[in-house]
Amino acid sequence: xxxxxxxxxxxxxxxxxxxxxxxxxxxxxxxxxxxxxxxxxxxxxxxxxxxxxxxxxxxxxxxxxxxxxxxxxxxxxxxxxxxxxxxxxxxxxxxxxxxxxxxxxxxxxxxxxxxxxxxxxxxxxxxxxxxxxxxxxxxxxxxxxxxxxxxxxxxxxxxxxxxxxxxxxxxxxxxxxxxxxxxxxxxxxxxxxxxxxxxxxxxxxxxxxxxxxxxxxxxxxxxxxxxxxxxxxxxxxxxxxxxxxxxxxxxxxxxxxxxxxxxxxxxxxxxxxxxxxxxxxxxxxxxxxxxxxxxxxxxxxxxxxxxxxxxxxxxxxxxxxxxxxxxxxxxxxxxxxxxxxxxxxxxxxxxxxxx
Length: 355
What we know:
The protein is an alpha+beta fold and about 350 residues long. It is built from eight helices and seven strands; from the N terminus they run ααβββββααααβαβα. Strands 2-1-5-4-3 form a five-stranded antiparallel β-sheet. A two-stranded antiparallel sheet has the order 6-7.
């Protein structure tokens, strides 16, 4: 069975989705800005490293030597280690004079001119001396930058795993609190019915719901007026019919005493039975109108099961319904309600008679 649409569930889903969407959008925008700033910062680091190494190479006379030099680790100066930045010191003719231990022996695929160059897997910065005899090329792998961006993205997205349930919980509490006036009005309306047509109190009702309570109160007032008119009509009709029916029955009985023909007397007896039925019907109609008007309500509850048993026994004693109505009740069972026992008997008898 499909669940009925719920404003609370819709609000919860919409607000949670909006929160997640805005967080992801903000994270994406932050990553774009971060990517640009990180590239700018890392490019600046490449440039600074190249200028420092080139300055040291010139001060150590590598520009004058012009011979190939083994990288420092081979001379036992620095232990092997992982490098994010690698470099090659090259002569004007492209030979590698000095390189870091992670740098390839072959020259980088970058021209010997000052500036940045990107290859498939490297970001390279080249800086040369004023004379153009020495060039330093510092390189960084694109994978290192991508890993940094990925770590930053995960740092922004992973909190969603905690934010979503906490946000959904907080949103549900807020939605429940905001929907409390709606729920209160719903409960008040559900209590209204044929036995309760009192107006809905507008005390404390929020301004958005006030027109609803006013409209419901108007509808209840119209319904109460219609029911009152119906009950009044039924009661008045039953009351007005009692005297004419009794008079007609009396006249019929006097006529019955004067008739000699058996067939006429039989037809007259049938008319008399119908008049008795009409009298009983008008009496029940009057009693039902009084019961529906609230006269049947009692302050204390009563056990109605003995009333049902007595009524059914009385019905089964009539020739027309003998043995046709059966009441099954287990030992110790009770049927308690705040209703007048006489009114209940009237209503139950009318229900059985009309079955």
